[in-house]
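Chapter summary example: a protein plus biliverdine IX alpha.
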Amino acid sequence: MHKSQEYLDNSFILEELLKRINNSIADHHGKEILVSKGIAERVSIKGDSFIRSWLWDVPGFRRWRVTRMDAGNKIQVLNSVAYPDYINDQPILGIDLLWFGATNKLVAVLDFQPLIQDDDYFQKYYQGLGNLKNNFQEFNNEITMKIYDSNKFFSPFVLFYSGSAKTIKESLSNLFQNFIEYYWQLSESKLNTMNSEQVRKIHIEYDTYNAERDPAHGLFKSYFGKDWADNFVSNFLFPLSIKGIE
Ligand code: BLA
């Protein structure tokens, strides 16, 4: 397949960020958990794209997953979600970085995804993210939620960019670094007010909500087939989701 210069540039930066997040997790004493072969790596039906995933056991977290999809000139993805232990009511880390080759468009969504929409909770956990929001103006695009509800699991400080991939790479790289650093700092704070049962229920809601809406499902279906896509979404991306009636 012909690889465009844009593809090379954009897959390069997502590879860099992938390495950075996996290394950062390992530096924080994360241990890689073996993922079944069919999930850890999958080649598309046509044979020209692939998806790879990592699962980490990290002190303070009950689950941390990272996924990278490389569909050449069509689409490039880096996605990660970190779920803190139930005894910790801090936000869920959410990262979704997408590059679309046809338009050379980059979509970046980075948030500390709140368990509740509450001023005290925002006061407690969002000083760092608020600083980033002020310092990285490019990531202040008005977020147009077509699929998700902005009041469900998104914070008022969500960093969002949607536009040309050409001009954003350096600041994305800087932002990414800071974003992860601030998230680690958060996990060192002991500000808990919710109990474990409350947190567990909200994690279940988060997985259920996202399994129903994730726009990736259609994408996975077309590249990897329906059975694989269904299994990946319900058992790897959102394993706590309560399945509705099909
Ligand atoms: C949007 N995410 C999208 C879109 C795709 C994906 C295809 C639509 C983009 C568009 O057409 O403009 C893709 N999501 C993926 C892929 C995975 C995935 C490939 O989970 C693979 C694992 N999404 C998240 C997380 C956040 C998130 C953790 O997975 C939070 C930071 C946000 N994605 C998010 C938002 C949009 C989006 C806010 C815009 C959707 C909207 O308009 O409502």
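Key point: Helices lie at 5-27, 37-40, 119-125, 127-135, 169-188, 196-213, 216-224, 226-237.
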